[in-house]
Predict the 3D structure of the following.
Amino acid sequence: MTSLKTKLYSAFDSLLTKLKLELFYHYSTDPNLLDEIDKLRKKQLMLLTVSEAIQLCECVARCTTIPGGMAEVGVSNGGSALLIAQRKGTNTLHLFDTFEGLPENDAYGTYFKKNQYKASMENTQQLLKKYEQIHWHVGLFPATAEGIIEKFSFVHLDVDLYASTLDALKFFYPKMAQGGIILTHDYRFSAGVRKAFMEFCADKKEAPLALATNQALIVKLS
Ligand SMILES: C[S@@+](CC[C@H](N)C(=O)[O-])C[C@H]1O[C@@H](n2cnc3c(N)ncnc32)[C@H](O)[C@@H]1O
């Protein structure tokens, strides 16, 4: 039922957002964006809705002038990574995924399950092959992040689970440049993602800003 509701919401959101954007104003900053997002969704390369994908692109664009690399944890078929890669400029982009789908976990909730979102690493790497400065970290995060010491301007988390989200916040938060953004998917849908952000941010100056989509973000203050 949840899954059907999600699919209906996603289809409706997609249609409505496209209509809204096309009828009420021209998406002048990036006129091809809607078509690009549509293509990725139709080819089932991305799970983000149209609004969520636009939000992601806005965050990336806003962070390109902040010194530091970019990262995505939770790449799967690579659609959201492609949107980041197209907009990252000369920044490095670190991409993390098991490509085996969601890892072993003791709190999947009712929706998530082991190996969900398993994807072909070869196809995903092929999709992104023309972009420079991409570093692939295949396997279970955070072990795959060992040795990375650079600062980050933008991080996209799309890992669905409490443990993966908390691990990512612990790893990236201290490495974020001032003004850098950590954007997460599934903040409203996954109790685990929300719990990880609430717990992690409890003693920080930054509070998660829940968006009208299924996303939330924090902006690193210092
Ligand atoms: C919902 S999918 C990502 C979808 C993709 N961002 C998109 O928009 O289509 C979630 C991904 O998170 C990955 N994942 C979750 N926890 C992980 C961890 N600890 N290490 C590596 N990958 C992880 C899974 O393998 C899965 O591919």
The pocket of S-adenosylmethionine is lined by residues 46-48, 74-77, 79-80, 96-98, 101-103, 117, 119, 140-141, 158-161, 164 (CB under 6 Å). The chain has a mean pLDDT of 92. Residues 57-219 form a domain with the Rossmann fold fold (CATH 3.40.50.150).
